[in-house]
């Protein structure tokens, strides 16, 4: 098991226990089964980023605390140098870098995402809205029954409660900026 996944699992279980919340109550609040929550908390299954957002919201903490164990401290400005975003290892299909992880009480989550052309992720949903801006390569964004092909400079804004997934096209990686409204 990836050490980072194990650390996140320990933190989410710890938050639940500190709050005196049972697995059943927490699972119901998140809209998942108690068995799924147990697998996430034991590190058996990797936790989707969208669910980490929901867990952070449920516990009233910043997502960065769940991912790193450290609370963000900045309130006025967050400066992240190129390549220095917080790596979020969630899926083989996506490589995420949080571009504002040191800023406390974020209302949006800006992420730099690289798509692996050799993987096909399952659709996800999460609260809020999402903005995608294609930077490199070509990508397909499937939202519900519709598909949109993006090239560098193209953008897409959508309701992220609709099942969606991103795929790299042309057998090449694609990179895009996504901004997710988290509150």
Labels describing this entry:
single chain; 183 residues; alpha+beta; Jelly Rolls; 3-stranded antiparallel sheet; 9 strands
Describe what this molecule looks like in 3D.
The chain has helices at about 5-20, 25-30, 35-40, 50-60, 65-70, and strands at about 85-90, 95-100, 110-115, 130-135, 140-145, 145-150, 155-160, 165-170, 175-180. A hairpin with a 5-residue loop joins strand 1 (about 85-90) and strand 2 (about 95-100). The strands form 2 sheets. Strands 1-2-3-9-4-7 form a 6-stranded antiparallel beta sheet, with no helix packed on it. The chain has 2 domains: about 5-70, lambda repressor-like DNA-binding domains (434 Repressor (Amino-terminal Domain)); about 85-180, Sandwich (Jelly Rolls). The model has no long low-confidence stretch (mean pLDDT about 85). With about 180 residues, the protein is α+β, with helices and mostly antiparallel strands. The longest helix is centred in the N-terminal third of the chain and has 16 residues, at about 5-20. Helix 2 crosses helix 3 (about 35-40).
Task: Give a short summary of the structure.
This protein is of the alpha+beta class. The protein is built from five helices and nine strands, in the order H-H-H-H-H-E-E-E-E-E-E-E-E-E.
Show the helix and strand layout.
Layout: H1 3-18, H2 23-30, H3 34-42, H4 49-59, H5 63-68, E1 86-88, E2 94-98, E3 108-115, E4 129-136, E5 139-143, E6 146-150, E7 155-159, E8 164-168, E9 174-181
Antiparallel strand pairs: 1-2, 2-3, 3-9, 4-7, 4-9, 5-6, 5-8
Helix pairs in contact: 2-3
């Amino acid at each position: 098991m990836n050490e980072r996944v194990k650390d996140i699992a320990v933190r989410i279980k710890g938050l639940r226990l500190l709050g005196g919340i049972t697995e059943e109550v927490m699972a119901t609040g998140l809209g998942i089964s108690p068995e799924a929550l147990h697998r996430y908390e034991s590190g058996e299954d990797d936790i989707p980023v969208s669910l980490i957002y929901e867990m952070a919201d449920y516990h009233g903490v910043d997502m960065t605390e769940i991912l790193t164990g450290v609370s963000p401290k900045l309130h006025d400005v967050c400066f992240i140098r190129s390549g220095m975003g917080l790596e979020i290892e969630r899926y083989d299909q996506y490589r995420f870098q949080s571009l504002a992880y040191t800023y406390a009480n974020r209302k949006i989550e800006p992420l730099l995402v690289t798509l692996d052309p050799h993987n096909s992720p399952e659709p996800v949903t999460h609260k809020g809205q999402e903005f995608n801006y294609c930077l490199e390569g070509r990508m397909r964004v499937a939202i519900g029954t519709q598909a949109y092909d993006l090239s560098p400079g193209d953008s897409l804004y959508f309701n992220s409660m609709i099942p969606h997934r991103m795929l790299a096209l042309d057998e090449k990686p694609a990179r895009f900026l996504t901004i997710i409204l988290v509150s």
